[in-house]
Amino acid sequence: MTTPLPLPLPLPGSGNPLAAPVAVPAPALFLASDDLLPRVRPATDADLPELHRLDKEVFQEHAYPYFVLRQFYDLYRDDLFVVDDGRTLLGYVLSGAASDRSRSWILGLAIDRRWRGHGLGRRLMAESLRRLRGQGVREVWLTVEPGNATAIELYVSLGFSYVDRRSGYFGPAADRLLMVLPLGS
User: What's the pLDDT tens digit per position in 65-102?
Assistant: First the structure.
């Protein structure tokens, strides 16, 4: 199926500006999931500077220093996923499993403020949880700032449940809610 352009354009070599309209292919109605942007993918070494920028933007004084992100990447590179639009990093999720793989922690989930509300956090978490299940992880833990209602709603919708509120978990005036998701045995 083709869609004519609205203005008549000359056919190549015709020189006639009133020639028949040039037809262009209509846009695809359905794209394979791999063709959709933004896309979730494993992080690479080249993503670390942008990942650090995003982490600082989102978590501000609680952001990981660059060297910590570097070490997390070296330790957990298979459990670090990013979402990008082909040019810019829009978010990431990082998990870290115990050596026996019985328990894992979500060490970070961050979405660029301009892209919140578009399901990117859900897509990143789904990919992370899929991978952790495949590794035989039995439960996933995380902490979340008590006032972050959007994140809490996301985690509850994914099956996480509230365990405890930890006062000063990340230092003075940095309380956190502790949540867990059983993945089964």
Answer: 999 999 999 999 999 999 999 889 999 999 999 888 89
Q: How far apart are CA 75 and CA 2, in angstroms?
A: 51
User: Structural domain boundaries of the chain?
Assistant: 1-30, 33-182
Q: Provide the whole-model pTM.
A: 0.77
- The CATH architecture annotation of domain 33-182 reads 3-Layer(aba) Sandwich (3.40)
Scored b (16 or more CB within 10 A) or e, 52-73 reads bebbbebeeeebbeeeebeebb
- Cα-to-chain-centroid distance, residue 149: 18
For residue 181, give both structure tokens. 């998701």
